[in-house]
Write a structure and sequence with these properties.
single chain; 761 residues; alpha+beta; Beta-Lactamase; 5 domains; seven-stranded antiparallel beta sheet; six-stranded antiparallel beta sheet; binds adenosine-5'-triphosphate; binds magnesium ion
């Protein structure tokens, strides 16, 4: 593109420049100046001329050689000399060019004199003052421009206004706004062409970062405005080339007459441009963009018009951050709106996939993107422009291999996942929100390859003039170079987009998880209920045939006892024994299933009575074991089911007696209040907890949960007096029906304590 291109640099004769080394050009020491003015470098101490441009004779009537060593006092009027000395005393001139006066120099002129101090030298730049130009009312002009800038609401509007206003003030044929991307490539975001001028538009053209080399960008930060009145004219050399004092070339970072690069002038000429003006726009301490003005004939604008344009650029620089924040706030607002719509839709709709894809405003509008895909329950929902479903499914498999479950964004998918090369026209960049990796639930926003979203400016097949540096120095070739660097890449994702995706993920997974838990609870109670009724039906129906088997086996034993040999008699006896055992199992199962089915009636129960009744019903076993049952202090009265709670104590105390090999068997039944010493951590949520403790054989750690499984016994069937293995299952069922919990703590060989809580009690 324009003045920005390779500007501002000059090719010292000894260095042969090519497009690959142009970013090493010593642009701040070009050794020559733009020939529409004169540059004098004076010693900052004695104000004698040390170096001068070799065009002094044409402008001031004195050959350059004769100029060297001349004191400044010999060149200026007394009055202007006074102005200059006052400026040096009172103003800050170090690296800061200031307008000094408009007046005669060596009796010629008038000239606009601009001066600054740099590295021990005073650089005086003289530019013929164009006294004959009609002076517009700059104050009115700028006031209007600034007022319009303030009204612009978006960065896009703002950019259009900038080019319009600068075109109006400067009068150039074409004024463009070139905006830098984070990687220093850039593109023309706004363009204003002089009324009546027929020119191809450059709007939308992109350029690689190398088009404006880093040292050119650095100089734009120092010296924000550059004018090239005629790309064809010969530049004036600085004489002598090296300073007589320092033996170094003249440092011209801040000089407005600083010579320009041959590549830049050739670039302009390749486009048919003769004159240019370039003004930097900064955001903070970073270059944000450039205002590039082109003219198709030589053009030089007066110092004060240039200053007016520079002033506009400063205003723009101050406001650009503000407009960008405003744009961002608007975008954030839109994201927030879609976020809310997605969440509401999710609340209303059980199916995550259709909730997301069906929300309004659409999920597609959450981010600036081309398409979106939502995977849920194995279904692939799509909206906008996306790859095909099989392609997306393969992409999903690739995404699921990621080690974590975090939001993922890339603007260059094909470089990570080569298969994406096939669909880079819809998904060269993706932003992924994983909702559940395990279930393959994902939302994927996608952006097409950037090349697809960029419009060609003008006719790309139209031949362009080729200069001696080759045809690369034209906007279209530059565009082609940029194409090479961005092939397979979509527009990058902004930090605010990634942040919004993270927030969305947290919000959605939270809802989904809570819903899954609620569903699991419903499912669990339903399947428990089904199991209970199955157990009831099965055990009830099994009882009948079993009784038949038992009866017939008993009859055979009684009636045919003399016809059976001893072996068959034994077999028949085994049948009778096994059917008895099976009957006991079925009875337990039936009892257990009844506990799940029948409603429980809560009433105040004095637990002291419940324990006493329980002990009574196992009196024979108690006496036989010789065990001591103690209740350290009276038990409370609770709300519960009388029969159920009695059953809990019967089973726990019976086990405590049964699984005990000690000569002095001891059982303790008690209750503990919360915060009391010994109150178990697991009961933390409850106000009270009950226990049955023994000094028996203990339960190995690995089996402390298993013992609650129905028919699970840890011993041979005849050991420790036998049993069906249903006791603890029944205990757990009763406790659960009271909204409580039961568990045990044990020490192998040292006894076991069963704890239980009773819901609200
Ligand atoms: P049932 O109680 O149905 O007649 P059971 O006593 O075998 O038969 P549970 O009361 O459910 O069945 O107990 C299951 C198993 O847990 C027992 O077989 C035993 O191995 C172990 N167990 C239960 N209570 C104790 C305890 N207090 N000390 C050591 N082991 C125990
Ligand atoms: Mg038992």
């Amino acid at each position: 593109m324009a003045e920005a291109q390779l500007e501002p640099s000059v090719v010292p004769q000894a260095v042969k420049l090519s497009l690959t080394n142009c970013d090493r050009e010593p642009t701040h020491i070009p050794g020559q100046i733009l020939a529409h003015g004169v540059l004098l470098a004076l010693g900052a101490d004695d104000f004698t001329v040390l170096q001068a441009s070799d065009n002094t004779e044409a402008f001031l009537g004195i050959p350059t050689a004769a100029f060297l060593g001349t004191p400044l006092s010999a060149l200026l009027t007394r009055e202007n000399l006074g102005v200059l000395h006052r400026a040096i005393r009172e103003e800050h001139l170090e690296d800061n060019p200031l307008y000094l006066f408009t007046g005669l120099v060596c009796g010629r002129g008038p000239f606009n004199a601009i001066g600054h101090l740099r590295a021990g030298l005073f650089l005086l730049e003289l530019e013929p003052a164009s006294g004959d130009l009609e002076r517009p009312d700059f104050y009115q002009m700028l006031k209007r421009s600034v007022a319009r800038f303030q009204r612009a609401t978006s960065v896009g509007d703002f950019c259009n206004l900038i080019t319009e206003e600068v075109q109006r003030v400067s009068g150039y044929d074409r004024v463009m706004l070139y905006r830098f991307a984070p990687d220093w490539s850039g593109h023309v975001v706004a363009e204003s062409i002089k009324k009546g001028k027929q020119l191809d538009s450059y709007l939308g053209l992109h350029y690689p970062a190398s088009d404006i080399p880093s040292q050119a960008r650095a100089l734009f930060l120092l010296n924000t405005i550059r004018m090239l009145p005629d790309a064809r004219y010969i530049q004036s050399r600085i004489v002598p080339e090296l300073s007589p004092r320092t033996n170094l070339p003249l440092e011209m970072s801040y000089a407005f007459l600083r010579g320009t690069s041959q590549m830049y002038t050739e670039y302009l000429l390749n486009m048919g441009v003769n004159a240019s003006l370039t003004i930097a726009i900064t955001k903070g301490d970073r270059l944000w963009g450039l205002i590039a003005c082109h003219h198709y004939t030589p053009r030089q604008i007066p110092y004060d018009v240039r200053t007016a344009c520079e002033f506009l650029a400063r205003v723009v620089s101050l406001q650009v951050a503000d407009k960008q924040l405003h744009d961002e706030a608007g975008y954030r607002g839109r994201i927030g709106e879609v976020h809310d719509s997605m969440m509401q839709s999710l609340m209303r709709n059980e199916d995550v996939g259709s909730a997301i894809i069906g929300c309004d405003p659409s999920v597609l509008g959450l981010f600036d993107c081309g398409g979106v895909a939502v995977f849920s329950r194995g279904v692939c929902h799509r909206a906008g422009e996306t790859p095909s479903e099989p392609e997306l499914r393969m992409l999903l498999e690739w995404l699921r291999q990621a080690p974590d479950n975090e939001v993922f964004a890339t603007d260059a998918l094909p470089s990570l996942y080569p298969a994406a090369e096939q669909f880079r026209n819809t998904a060269a960049g993706i932003l992924v929100v994983p909702l559940s990796k395990a279930n393959g639930e994902y939302i994927i926003w996608m952006r097409p390859e950037m090349l697809r979203t960029v419009n060609w400016a003008g006719d790309p097949s139209k031949p362009v003039e080729i200069g001696p540096m080759g045809d690369r120095l034209t906007p279209r070739k530059s565009f082609a170079a940029w194409q090479d660097t961005v092939r397979g890449r979509g527009a990058g994702w902004l930090d605010l987009e990634i942040e919004a995706a993270r927030k969305l993920r947290v919000a959605m997974t939270d809802v989904i998880q809570r819903r899954a838990e609620a569903l699991a609870r419903v499912e669990l109670s339903r399947s428990n209920a089904e199991l209970d009724s199955f157990a009831y039906v099965a055990s009830h129906d099994l009882k009948e045939p079993l009784r038949g088997i038992y009866n017939f086996a008993s009859f055979v034993l009684q009636d045919c006892t003399d016809k059976l040999d001893s072996e068959n008699k034994e077999k028949m006896e085994t049948i009778v024994r096994l059917t008895k055992r099976m009957q006991a199992l079925i009875d337990s199962l039936l009892h257990f299933s009844r506990l799940g089915r029948d409603p429980i009636a809560l009433e105040p129960i004095d637990l002291n009575e419940a324990v006493r009744d329980a002990l009574e019903s196992i009196d024979a076993r108690l006496r036989e074991s010789g065990a001591q049952v103690s209740i350290p202090r009276p038990l409370p009265t609770v709300r519960g089911d009388r029969v159920g709670l009695q059953e809990v104590f019967i089973n726990l105390i019976a086990n405590a007696l049964k699984y005990n090999d000690k000569p002095d068997k001891a059982v303790e039944v008690g209750s503990l209040e919360r915060f009391e010493p010994g109150f178990p951590a697991r009961a933390q949520e409850s106000t009270r907890c009950f226990y049955v403790r023994d000094n028996g054989i203990g339960i190995p750690a690995a089996y402390r949960e298993e013992v609650f499984r129905i028919f699970r016994r840890l011993h041979q069937k005849d050991q420790f007096g036998g049993g069906t293995g249903a006791g603890l299952t029944i205990v757990r069922k009763v406790v659960q029906r009271h909204d409580g919990e039961v568990w045990c703590e044990s020490e192998e060989g040292g006894g076991t304590t069963f704890y239980f809580t009773l819901g609200a009690n």
